[in-house]
Each structure stands twice: as C-alpha cells, then as structure tokens.
Write a structure and sequence with these properties.
Helix content is about 30%, strand content about 25%. The termini are far apart. The strands form five sheets. Strands 1, 2, 3, 4, 14, 15 and 20 form a seven-stranded mixed β-sheet that branches. It is an alpha+beta fold. A hairpin with a 2-residue loop joins strand 11 and strand 12.
Length: about 375
C-alpha cells in the first residue's frame, strides 16, 4: 500500500512538473514570437518624415450612462459588469498608455481608428480626461444603428492631418434586413507636408456568432460595399493612396478579403486596382496574432493598403514604410494564459469579472513616409 501511494505521489509530482515545464516552455516560446511585433518597432521621432496610422479594438469602451435606445445595460453601475466611473476612467487611462507607448518619441500616433466604441462621448472623454488633450486631436465619428451601440471612430492630430471629407457607409443586408450592424467609416484627408490625399476606411465587420460559415455572407457583403467605394476612388484617381483597417472578424485567407476586397497576399502579385494585406505574412506564425481565442492566436485585425502606397518611390509622395504594418505586442499588454498556456491579451473583463487590463485585441499600425 505504501509503495502504491508513493508511486501515485511520484506520478503526480512528475505530471505537475511536466505541466509546469510545458507552460514555461510555451510562455517562453510565445514571448519570443510576440517580440516579432516589436522587432521592427521604431520609437524614434517621426517629425518631418512620416506619420503612424493605427487601428485598435478597445474592447467595449462604454460610458457609465444608461442609453434607453441601446442594449448597454450591462455597462452601467447597476449592470452585470458593475461598470463604474472609476473603472471607466481607468479604461481611458489604459488606452492613453497604449497610444503613448505605441507612438514612441514621436508622440502618440497621428491617426487612430477605433472599434467597439459606444458613442462620440467616449472619444471626447479620452481626449479630455487624459494627457492626450495636449496633442490637438480631433474626432471623426458617426452614430451607427448597431443595437448594442457599438461604433467605429477615428481621431487625428490636426497639426499632422487635415480631414477633407468623411461619411458613413451604411450596411443593410438585403437577405436579413432585421439585423442592425455598425457602419464603415470613410475618411478622406491630407497628410500635412505630403503631396497626396489619403483615403481611410475604419471597419468592424459582423462577428462570427453562429459560426464562421453561417455568418460569412454578412462579412462578404460588407467587403463588397468597401470594394465598391474603393473602385470609385480608383476610377477617379488610379494612383490613390488608400488604407483599409479594422477588425474584420475574418482571417487573411478568407474570401471576404482575398476575393471580394481583392487583398493580395504577395507584393509581387499586385496589379492595378489591387490591395495588399500586410497581415497575411504575420498570420503564418501560429504564435503571433492580434487576438487569441481558445488558445489559438489569430489575425482578425487587418491593415490593407492600395498598390500605390506599396509601390510608390517618388520623394514627397506618401508611401508605406518597407517594414510594413506591425502588431504592437508590448509585454505590458499581455498576461499569462492559465487555461491554454503561454500568453494572451490582458483584457478589461473576463466574462463578468473585472480584470483591469487593456483589451482582448492588440493594436496594429503602419508608418506612412513622405519625407
């Protein structure tokens, strides 16, 4: 009996040590992979040579007020998540910290697209209640018909970028008119100091609720709307500089991107009218991504640019840096993944539990050079 108990104890100890070793090895490997997102990170000043274009899914940035027209009850002081003014201010402060770190010595990014915003007010509070107020940011926002009140939005440093026009691209599914979803935000402007206009699309495509295959037609439809707008821009200006960014809720190889949006995975295959998806190459590394679901890293957040932004070589003209788009995977944005080992984004909530983190997504960015 003693021998049997001793054997059980040894086996249990072995499996515990083995599990700890596997977890440590997985975490070390993942940390090494995630550092790829910082390998090419340039924290130097950008003044007079480039601007940083960023996208960030901020995970349910709601104010604390109950809007009777929206399904925002859980994000109120009496709601399921106990969303308080203190937690709201902490969330705003966390976003400020992310943008400051991502901007480096050049200051926070010149242009930032967001998704999972409740309204314009949360952007106003972000710029009013944090030190971002000193960077002369302005807001572009349109209220969307999403039933939860989830919107996309855009902020820009007015001393670096000038907005010439903006409009929402409304999404009405002909095959399911009862569904209300967020708009795509289109912004046309000019990077001050360059000779080019820049066309920006901020996206948050329909989720995979109900399964990837069942929900795919909705994302394909939205991709078609964006592609139609891109075609109209290209028709007016074949050398247009276009950036399509956002949480697409699809991977780089899904048909919404490859066939409908025409986001080509290889630069060598780019032709007139095509778009290039920087995230395709990054998504090949299974240990790297902008989002983690059930232990698997994925790249649902994309930075897709027009052929002229990739191939432009003339000085003074806007072009993407040769390093391309990156995932900003700073270690402070990550925590240990206790369920699946390794690391995961340090999010604000885990179910109804307040964790106090940043977001369940990592931000992505690309530098646009104009010298």
């Amino acid at each position: 009996m003693r021998y049997y108990l001793a054997l059980l104890w040894c086996c249990a100890s072995f499996w515990q040590l083995s599990a700890q070793a596997d977890s440590s090895a997985a975490r070390a490997a993942e940390e090494g992979a995630l550092k790829l997102g910082l390998k090419n990170f340039d924290d130097g000043p950008r003044q007079g040579r480039a601007v940083r274009l960023t996208f960030y899914n901020v995970e349910n940035l709601f104010d604390t007020e109950d809007d009777p027209k929206k399904r925002d009850d859980e994000f109120t002081p009496r709601g399921l998540k106990g969303w308080s003014y203190f937690r709201y201010k902490q969330k705003l402060s966390n976003i400020y910290k992310v943008l400051t770190a991502l901007g480096g010595w050049g200051g926070p990014p010149e242009m930032v697209g967001f998704c999972e915003l409740e309204n314009r007010k949360v952007l106003e509070d972000l710029l009013r209640l944090t030190p971002l107020q000193k960077f002369r940011y302005k807001i572009v926002h349109e209220e969307s018909p999403d039933r939860r009140g989830i919107d996309v939005g855009f902020i820009y440093r007015s001393d670096k970028f000038e907005v010439l026009h903006h409009e929402p691209i409304r999404v009405v599914f002909p095959f399911d008119t009862a569904v209300k979803t967020r708009d795509v935000l289109y912004v046309c402007g000019k990077v001050l100091g360059s000779k080019d206009s820049l066309h920006i699309f901020v996206n948050h495509w329909p989720s995979r609720r109900g399964g990837q295959a069942a929900s795919e037609p909705k994302r394909v439809f939205v991709a078609g709307l964006v592609r139609a707008k891109i075609d109209s821009i290209y028709k007016a200006s074949p050398e247009a500089k276009i950036a399509v960014m956002g949480d697409f809720n699809d991977e780089a190889e899904n048909i919404s991107l490859t066939e409908v949006l025409r986001a080509v995975p290889e630069k060598e295959d780019l032709g007139p009218g095509d778009m290039y998806n920087y995230m395709h190459a990054l998504s090949k590394n299974w240990q790297l991504g902008s989002h983690k679901f059930r232990g698997h890293w994925g790249t649902l957040d994309h930075m897709v640019v027009s052929t002229p932004l990739v191939q432009e070589s003339r000085k003074g003209r806007l072009r993407a840096t040769p390093l391309g788009a990156q995932i900003f995977s700073a270690r402070f944005l990550l925590e240990e993944d206790r369920a699946y080992m390794g690391l995961q984004p340090f999010r604000t909530y885990g179910g109804p539990k307040f964790l106090g983190g940043f977001s369940d997504h990592l931000p992505i960015y690309v530098d646009l050079i104009y010298e």
